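Hi there, hope your week has been kind to you so far. Do you reckon you could talk me through the fold, stretch by stretch? Thanks so much in advance, here it is.
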Amino acid sequence: MSPAPPSGTPSDEPRQQPQPQRTVHIGSVTGSAFAVGDHNTVTQHQHAGPAGEAQAELLQAVRELRADLARFVTSDATEVLDAELVSVADEIETSGAAEPGRLARLQQALTAAGTVTGTLASGVAVAEALRALLGG
């Protein structure tokens, strides 16, 4: 039996080295897909975005009106309006433009909820954007 090595003397047992810390920093990425690390899957979703300035203005106004509506007590009219706002936003984001039929339904829902939306700047902005797109 051999005596234990004195303290401070290397032993025959291998020492485990600490794993290096790996850090990845990604700033802004547009129009690309990538993966970092082992065994990853990359899924890329591309959306068209607004086709023109009028659609972009409507999309922005729709987002603002939805945020404003969240501060109010919901009613049947505001629930229908919110559903139409979501539909219009989704259509603009995926295909680039909302179809005239969907815009007309949004205009009807906006009119039905007029007591709430008529006092909101965002409601007025949506109404003006719809008039520009529907020509009326």
